[in-house]
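In this section we walk through a basic example: taking a raw amino acid sequence and producing a predicted 3D structure, encoded as discrete structure tokens. The instruction is simple. Fold the sequence below.
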Amino acid sequence: MVTFIKRGDTNPDFEKRLRNEVGEPVNLSSADDVTFIVQDQNYNNIISDNTSGNVSYILDNEDNKTSRVKYSWQSGDTSTIGTYKGEFVVDFGTDGSRTFPSNGYYTINIVEDIND
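The resulting token sequence is shown next.
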């Protein structure tokens, strides 16, 4: 679950298919909101954004049930080289919230570019 992106890049989007603990895609059609959180190694939140901002659902062609989400990187998100951990938190309203991945984190490595 390691993603590499060069410092300063905002493309491609950070896109993941959310799966439950047995590997099945999660149906997000009843979700009220999805938040993407990224922390640095000192546990500081670098990114915390939801579907009212730069997080979106992606409909699957097969059954129109959503199990994929994406975050569109913003200017400054990838400006500092380092290793970060990320997760998506899905709010299912009265059914509570759930964090993905359920075991560990998405690892995001922002690596040096040669444009200095």
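Looking at the output, two observations stand out. The radius of gyration is 15 Å. The chain has a mean pLDDT of 90. In the next section we compare this with other chains.
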